[in-house]
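Handout, section B. The chain below has 522 residues.
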Amino acid sequence: MRTLHLLRSAATAALLAAVMAACGGGNRAEPNASTVRQATARLDTLVPQWMERTGVPGVAVAVVHGGRTVYAKGFGLRRVDGSEAVDADTVFQLASVSKSLAATVMAAQMPPGVDWDTPVQRLLPGFALAYPEAQDNARLSLGDLFAHRSGLPDHAGDPLEDLGYARGDILQRLRHAALHPYGSYAYTNFGLTAAGEALAQARGTDWATLSAQALYQPLGMAHASSRYADFAARANRAWGHVQVGLSYDSYDSYGAQPARYAVQQPPRQPDAQSPAGGASASAADMARWMALVLAQGQYQGQQLADPAALQAALTARPGGGYGYGFNVGPDPHGHPSVSHSGAFLLGAHTAFILWPQAGLGITVLTNAQPRGLTEAIALAFGEQAWGDVAGTDWLATMQARMHEMYRPLGHLAGQPAPATPTPPQPLARYAGRYANAYYGDARVVLGADGTALDLVIGPAQVRHRLRHHDGDLFAFDLQGENAPPGSVSAVQFSLDGPGRMQVEFYAEDLAHGLFERVADGR
């Protein structure tokens, strides 16, 4: 059975890097106060125009140049059904831009004798992956995890978060994930989270507290936090939005016209992956962080982050375009840059680009699903600030590249049931408890009237209504952070012997989604 795969925040993180890799020659004169002023002035008209083209409800932008915040402004609404305006202090969920903040925290808090090459097991002894060679666990480093080179598969652990597992449980269960070879690249949230958790434990605190002490408080990032409860308590915060009416049938029309948005309920709660995706901040907060990074870890005369550790994070690993929590590479006109994007399908899209040699940076925050808007604004700004030849419609370019994020998952997606399916066995025969080391126990429950089956799984007791497809093959619909609308997972039962089921969506484990039926009480 095919394992489902979705380009989620990996798409936005790698997307900006991919666009930037398509370099052309550009003006080699560095941005100056005049060109930056012209580029920021253009934002006042460009951002509202592109918001109208996309339908995105709210945007905030910050620009730093020469160690100063030269632009910080909000546009649109905090929530589409309200009247409160976004401003420079409106707090947004950062999604995977959190990774770059986390790398800065790491650079600021590594104690003597700890660096990016420190084995994670030295700081987090219980953490292990399913390497065939024990030596790979012994050498797996903080840097390997921040560079997404542990061998974990793409977005490993994210489905466990959806099922309600807490951070510690997820990190323990990763030992049952199927691996690629050690050192191979695949973007993950929980691999990076393991490294952050390791340092926090070594420092005798939790990640959110460590981030506040190391970064947010010293920088005066008054509205920033790595704890969801703090974000939720902010009076001036942006609510996440999702597109209305997006389905399998409408997937191909994505980007053709402005989307219609509604507030996401329930809101995205990313505490389990806080180092990788759980930070929140305002545009004004992000300006202070950009100034710190551009000054090699210095802020107002204080060295807050170790310059060598920070520079290592800003340096691409051999053979790739990713450092430790940062995309690294030239922008489309060839100017050296570092960047990252972030995305929640449940309502957030963010991006920043820094041009270190020019002391220039821009952050763009939005309160809607990825639409290409954040990267487009940042690229258009950079193009004008550098005086490069314009001509690319960056919004159209980025929207086209993000189209794939909305492709429904599953080989049954969009497929009708057979006209004359083989009947199932009596439904009661499928009911029971099924075990899997990675995902935990699942129950297949017969409805009270005996005509339907539900799959119930995880600490959150996520319930999927199974519908018959053909013979012992059933299916259920998916929609959420890790599955676009229209996604469908197959469930193949085999009732020989004790019985088993194989679940297409839950298949990143060593058993590839195989759940064995066990007797109650075992």
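Note. The first strand starts at residue 58 and ends at 65. Compare this with the example in section A.
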